[in-house]
Specification:
Keywords: Carbohydrate metabolism, Cellulose degradation, Glycosidase, Hydrolase, Polysaccharide degradation. The protein is built from 16 helices and 13 strands. It is an alpha/beta fold. The strands form three sheets. It has an eight-stranded parallel barrel with strand order 1-2-3-4-5-7-10-11, surrounded by six helices. Strand 12 and strand 13 form a beta hairpin. The termini are close together.
């Protein structure tokens, strides 16, 4: 590989509920993930994030390990219920103090902090009041963002408002796979709007000459299984809900009319056109969380009843097609070229807007050998392939400014519990011992070179 340009950001990422633990310490309030994870049947292995990686107490060790790998940036998320336990009202000083200590430890180790304000841990009290289906949550998010930024802006200069609002809306309120576990059909699009509004309000509240503010999305290429009219329409529908429903309001100041028509939500969204200038407030960058593309087809016949819980409200019967690509343990097809396609998709809409890969990684069933090594050859190959595409994209002239591996350490993988490991660093959950995997050692050598 040739050298990347000076100033290209190399980092790794985590998320608060997945790593912190300490869910009842220092005034933290309950989140929707605390409730969801303690509901029988919701988590694959019956586990929860009460302890997770104990990052709340071990953050200094984890940041030193990150720095020792040659990484210069740490993307972490701030837990809203740790800062404002009930979702609104006065801040919790102990919560803000934790994130100050974390950011200061980054800086002491030559690591630049990148903070995400919302990585899915909504305060439970706000969910009890309607969650992202109601407008008030967006306004409370603005208040939380302003309080957090005011307290930490001297040590954190790079901010992201939301992480993957597609997941929050369609996994949280569409098919119920994620917290809060609701299945609201087309009403999940109301959550989309309030998340987008919350982003815009927060961005306006924290923008300053000293900081950069963006958002982390999970767009992906959507392909039709064939050139038939039915399959091309299936791809249009899936692309609309996965990509255009978020990119269009952010970058074009409008929602895709065909998606609103498909879902029967045109009239509801028409009431809130005045929100679009807020949602499309100029961004400093967009973060891309890339894992895999999707190939879809129209079904030969009905395969589910209308209204079946789905991430595709109004289009529940679309079929995802297996194209024969190798897959990670998550069942996600491996297509490094899809990263280029995703970045170009955004660049076509906003040619000068800086881009970051804010998540990219793979889960495999890692095993520790008798001599203590973790030989995760597949993860190393995954990294090599995607970093080669990253290099090509930079050489092609796209404004890609950085790459964050997902994730720094193994962690609580949402509805999969601890049964899926994405980390560069292995965690023994019984002892909390950290150990570098071979993929981490490879990445360290790559960065040194």
């Amino acid at each position: 590989m040739t050298n990347f340009p000076d100033g290209f950001v190399w980092g790794a990422a985590t998320a608060s509920y997945q790593v912190e633990g300490a869910v009842s310490e220092d005034g933290r309030g309950p989140s929707i993930w605390d409730t969801f994870a303690h509901t029988p049947g919701r988590i694959a292995d019956g586990e929860n994030g009460d302890v997770a990686d104990d990052h709340y107490h071990r953050y200094a060790e984890d940041i030193r390990l990150l720095a020792d790998l040659g990484l210069k940036a740490y993307r972490f998320s701030i837990a809203w219920p740790r800062v404002i336990p009930m979702g609104s009202g006065a801040a919790n000083p102990a919560g803000l103090d934790f994130y100050r200590r974390l950011a200061e430890t980054c800086l002491e180790n030559g690591v630049t902090p990148y903070a995400t304000l919302y990585h899915w841990d909504l305060p439970q009290s706000l969910e009890d009041a309607g969650g992202w289906l109601v407008r008030d949550t967006a306004e409370r998010f603005r208040d939380y963002a302003a309080i957090t930024h005011a307290a930490l802006s001297d040590v954190v200069k790079h901010w992201m408002t939301l992480n993957e609002p597609w997941c929050s809306a369609f996994l949280g309120y569409g098919n119920g796979e994620h917290a809060p576990g609701r299945t609201e059909g087309a009403d999940a699009l109301k959550a989309v709007h309030h998340l987008m509004l919350g982003h815009g309000l927060a961005l306006q509240a924290i923008r300053s000459p000293e900081t950069t503010v963006g958002i982390a999305l999970n767009p992906a290429p959507v392909h039709a299984a064939s050139d038939s009219e039915a399959d091309r329409d299936a791809a249009r529908r899936a692309d609309g809900l996965r990509n255009r429903m978020f990119l269009d309001p952010l970058l074009l100041g409008k929602y895709p009319a065909d998606v609103l028509e498909d879902t029967g939500m045109t009239e509801w969204f028409a009431q809130y056109e005045a929100d679009l200038p807020v949602i499309s407030s100029p961004l400093d960058f967009i973060g891309v969380n890339y894992y895999c593309p999707q190939t879809v087809a129209a079904p030969d016949g009905p395969i589910s009843a209308p209204g079946t819980p789905s991430t595709l409200p109004g289009s529940e019967n679309l079929v995802t097609v297996d194209t024969g690509l190798d897959k990670t343990q998550m069942g996600w097809p491996i297509e490094p070229g899809g990263l280029r396609d995703t970045l170009k998709m955004i660049n076509d809409l906003a040619p000068t807007l800086p881009l970051y890969v804010t998540e990219n990684g793979s889960a495999y069933p890692d095993e520790v050998t008798a001599d203590g090594r973790i030989e995760d050859t597949e993860r190393q190959q995954y990294l090599e392939q995607h970093l080669e595409v990253t290099r090509q994209v930079v050489e092609e002239g796209l404004p890609l400014k950085g790459y964050f591996a997902w994730s720094l350490i193994d962690n609580f993988e949402w509805s999969w519990g601890f049964s899926r490991r994405f980390g560069l660093i292995h965690v023994d959950y019984s002892t909390q011992e950290r150990k570098l995997k071979n993929s981490a050692l490879w990445l360290r050598d790559f960065l040194e070179a």
